[in-house]
Design brief:
This protein has about 375 residues and is an alpha/beta fold. The chain folds into 2 domains: about 200 residues, Rossmann fold (3-Layer(aba) Sandwich), CATH 3.40.50; about 160 residues. Helix content is about 30%, strand content about 25%. β15 and β16 form a beta hairpin. The longest helix is centred in the middle third of the chain and has 17 residues.
């Protein structure tokens, strides 16, 4: 029986800057490691391969050495053939490109890669379609700080489900997904400037593949004012709470209404309507919650067009941070999700997603959550764990 030839590439440093508030890994690896960051890409990729464990006898994985794919696949017991050997422990973008070239030369059925938008660009440099031709389809496992590109599965497990369909000979239609990226130097200043670089052919199972992130600021300022007023009123009602303000344009509007500086793409801490700490790392945030003599409340919004609440663009909100917030008096009520109804309607009935990397925590968070959509106005909307 002919085995399914799965090309597999991991960018080991993808997303390494997220938990330490660097908002990217480009040129920041050593800095991130010095701040205590721990690579997460291999653990994300493992979640994908675990979905495929029932089909081990039908799959051979072609990959690169060590942390670029070999270690993850071998640990799970897959048949592995290493086609590319990276020379350095801290891999570079050309390693992803050379690995992709090696996979193409050996005729894999699909290239599955774990990384962020920078990794998608590297893969696209090798396999991006020229007119209607592309050697093989690709699929991304989301593992970076920023995922604007439309070539990624919604979650690591969703990527596994798509490969499962292919291995079991289900009909899987191909479509094209945009490869997007932003200027990380501007990104760290709170300025999002994304552009389209190319496109790649991907499996088009819309249940599992994300849409390109919605861009721009909320247009309905009156609705945002109502949402902000609701949160500010709660801040006025309590003097024993600190508020952890997550990233995004909706929470940024709240901070502007408070006349406070804001880290658009980071996490800030507010108490007594004063900015206590800005752009905190995961470790700083965890310590602030533990040290605070009162309740810490998390105020977050979702990524427009994708629906991610946790696990995308806010790696500072780690499982231990979220668990600590949930363990305080109030439990789940200590998490406030802000969104306009227009942003929820744009999800076309798809649930919000909690992809913290801790499946037990994702299950704990799952269910219908109250979403603050205006002043004294809430709707119930489902929050789901990765599929």
């Amino acid at each position: 029986m002919k085995k399914f030839k799965l090309g597999f590439i991991i960018n080991p440093i993808a997303g390494i800057g997220g938990s330490v508030a660097l908002k990217g890994s480009d040129g920041m690896v050593m800095h991130a490691l010095a701040l205590g960051a721990k690579p997460q890409a291999n653990s994300r990729a493992k979640l994908t391969l675990e979905v495929l464990l029932p089909y081990q006898d039908k799959i051979i994985i072609y990959t690169a050495n060590a942390l670029m794919g070999e270690q993850c696949a071998r640990e799970l017991g897959f048949e592995v053939e290493v086609l590319y050997h990276a020379k350095n422990k801290h891999t570079q973008s050309n390693d992803s490109q050379l690995a992709a070239e090696a996979l193409l030369e050996n005729g894999v059925d699909i290239i599955l890669f774990a990384g962020g938008d920078g990794t998608a660009r590297d893969i696209a440099n090798v396999v991006a379609s020229d007119g209607d031709y592309q050697p093989v389809p690709v699929l991304g496992i989301p593992a970076g700080c920023k995922i604007h590109s439309g070539v990624y599965a919604i979650t690591p497990k969703a990527a596994g489900r798509i490969i499962e369909l292919m291995v079991t000979n289900e009909l899987v239609t191909l479509t094209t997904g945009d490869v997007m990226d932003i200027d990380e130097s501007l990104f760290r200043q709170g300025i999002v400037k994304a552009k389209r670089y190319s496109e790649m052919k991907i499996p088009s199972e819309l249940r599992y593949v994300q849409a390109v992130k919605s861009g721009g600021k909320e247009s309905d300022e009156l609705v945002l004012q109502d949402i902000a007023a609701n949160v500010i009123e709660e801040m006025n009602d309590y003097d024993d709470r600190q508020f952890i303000i997550g990233s995004g344009s909706t929470t940024a509007f709240l901070m502007s209404e408070l006349a406070l500086g804001n880290t658009l793409l980071g996490v800030d801490i507010v108490s007594d309507q004063s900015l206590i700490a800005a752009d905190v790392t995961e470790a700083e945030l965890f310590k602030a919650i533990i040290d605070y003599h009162g309740v810490s409340k998390l105020v977050i919004t979702l990524i427009g067009g994708q629906g991610h609440v946790f696990g995308r663009g806010n790696q500072q909100l780690s499982p231990r941070v979220i668990r600590t917030i949930l363990s305080q008096p109030g439990g789940c009520k200590n998490i406030t999700i802000l969104a306009t109804k227009a942003k929820l309607e744009a999800l076309v009935n798809k649930p919000l997603i909690s992809d913290t990397g801790d499946s037990d925590l994702d299950q704990q968070l799952s269910g219908f959550m109250p979403i603050t959509t205006g002043y004294k106005d809430q709707v119930l909307y489902p929050l789901a764990s990765p599929q």
